[in-house]
Specification:
Number of strands: 2
Strand order of the largest sheet: 1-2
Mean pLDDT: 83
Low-confidence stretches: none
Shape: globular
Radius of gyration: 15 Å
Helix content: 55-70%
Length: 136
């Protein structure tokens, strides 16, 4: 669920964030959001978060969010690639293909790709970085 600064959630927010059904922020979505460019418009960030929320919605029905977040944190490329393939098929079968569907897919791909790239870069393991980039 996307919580905006104007919502009556009881949270003191300056930017919209994604939270789960218990109101707890989605960890990797929040980390990803921290790295958005400073000039990023709030509406653009909210739109991207709605697309990422779609990924989390898919994961809630097709997999396990805790497993996904652990796989993302450990850069488990096999798990993430399978999840992305499933999400792609979900989008393709769910509705007619449109610019909005493509945008949703590209946002999901960028979210996972940029998160994995940051984690891999932070590890300093050049071999893992090259392997990760070739798989993405």
């Amino acid at each position: 669920m996307l919580v905006s600064p104007t919502s009556r959630s009881g949270l003191l927010l300056t930017e919209p964030i994604l939270v789960n059904s218990c109101g707890i922020p989605r960890f990797w979505a929040t980390v990803w959001q921290c790295f958005l460019p400073a000039g990023h418009a709030r509406a653009t960030a909210a739109k991207a978060l709605r697309h990422i929320e779609s990924v989390y919605g898919y994961i809630d029905t097709a997999a396990n969010v805790a497993e996904f977040e652990a796989a993302l944190g450990h850069c488990d490329m096999g798990y993430l690639i399978n999840l992305l393939q499933g999400y792609f098929l979900f989008l393709r079968n769910r509705s007619r293909l449109s610019a909005a569907t493509e945008e949703r897919w590209q946002t999901a791909l960028r979210f996972i790709e940029s998160t994995v790239r940051r984690i891999t870069l932070a590890s300093g393991d050049q071999e893992q970085l090259h392997a990760t980039e070739s798989q993405l």
